[in-house]
Structures are given as C-alpha cells and as structure tokens.
Amino acid sequence: MRQLIVTTFLTLDGVMEAPGGGDHPHAGWTFKDVELDEAAYELKGTEQDEAGALLLGRVSYDEFAPVWHTMDDFESYNAGEKYVVSTTLEGDTAPWGDYDPVRVLRSVDDVRALKEGDGGPILVHGSATLAQSLADADLVDRYHLLVFPLLLGSGKRLFGDDGHKQKLHLLETETYSNGITKAVYDVVR
C-alpha cells in the first residue's frame, strides 16, 4: 500500500490558498510577506526525490499544469506519475506540457484504489478541497506542513470546520530564521 502525504504551505491561521499567486487578496504570501530562507524549502526537494506520484485537485491542476512543466525545479514531478481528481475534466487524461499526460481520477474511491496499489508515496500538493475529502475518507497518512508566521484571516483552509477529530504524531519539526516552521505529522490510526 502506498503512503499518501498532504504537503502544503500554510499560514498560522490555517489558510493555504494562493501561496504563490492567483486571485486571492493576499496571493503570493509565501514570497511577498516572509524573507527567503532556502533551508526552509529543503523539505520540498526531499519530497520530490521520494515521491512516487503527484496528486492534485482540479483547481490546483489548473494552476500548476501551465507552469510546472516549464520549470527545471520540478523535473521529477514532470517526468513521474501525475493524477488529478476531477468530475469535470473530459477524458481519461489531461495535458502536462511535453510530458506524459496527467491521469484523471473521478472520486475518492479512485484515490483509494491508487493508494492500495504498488509504488512510492503519493504527494498531494495544494488542493485544499481534495485534501479535506481525503482526510474525511481516512486516506491521509502524513502531513508535511511549512507553517508561515502570517495570519491572513480568510481563504481556503487545510482543515475544514466540519471535519472529524484526528490524532497526529509529530515526527519532525524545525523552525527557520525567517519564522517558518516545518512540521511533519503521521496520522494515528
């Protein structure tokens, strides 16, 4: 069985929407509001090296697909297995530049079947709605969080108001010079 990891940038008040850009009033908060400390992002490189697959929700796919395939920083993700969960995309695949297309999954049950197969960890980037649905279905095994010292007050949050109680076990934590805190949690079952 594959491990499913939700990895995200997060503000202290739980907002994960538009960390790099977009239409949110505070879009770009990861680089506009906090001084760069490259050490804080080492987790992202490690994730990419260890990932067996990238899993996105439809909104994150729409944001990432036009950009990531052009960036050398994401070569492992670009060349590897990619999936998007969507009920609105047509067909069984979706484009990802010159790379192999993204396979379209239609439901949480499809993600469960993917997880039950063989392969390396499945990483969910961004994708707040999908992450909440996967947590509600008890499919998340681990959280990789980079918590930024910001309060945005509004925006999509990693954890919804109507989710169920879930105990977590802290595996790793580190705080960087710019105030970002890395927190890696396993889901306790």
Automatic annotation (TrEMBL):
<protein>
    <submittedName>
        <fullName>Dihydrofolate reductase</fullName>
        <ecNumber>1.5.1.3</ecNumber>
    </submittedName>
</protein>
<dbReference type="InterPro" id="IPR024072">
    <property type="entry name" value="DHFR-like_dom_sf"/>
</dbReference>
<dbReference type="GO" id="GO:0004146">
    <property type="term" value="F:dihydrofolate reductase activity"/>
</dbReference>
<dbReference type="InterPro" id="IPR002734">
    <property type="entry name" value="RibDG_C"/>
</dbReference>
<keyword id="KW-0560">Oxidoreductase</keyword>
<dbReference type="GO" id="GO:0008703">
    <property type="term" value="F:5-amino-6-(5-phosphoribosylamino)uracil reductase activity"/>
</dbReference>
<feature type="domain" description="Bacterial bifunctional deaminase-reductase C-terminal">
    <location>
        <begin position="3"/>
        <end position="181"/>
    </location>
</feature>
<dbReference type="GO" id="GO:0009231">
    <property type="term" value="P:riboflavin biosynthetic process"/>
</dbReference>
<dbReference type="InterPro" id="IPR050765">
    <property type="entry name" value="Riboflavin_Biosynth_HTPR"/>
</dbReference>
<dbReference type="Pfam" id="PF01872">
    <property type="entry name" value="RibD_C"/>
</dbReference>
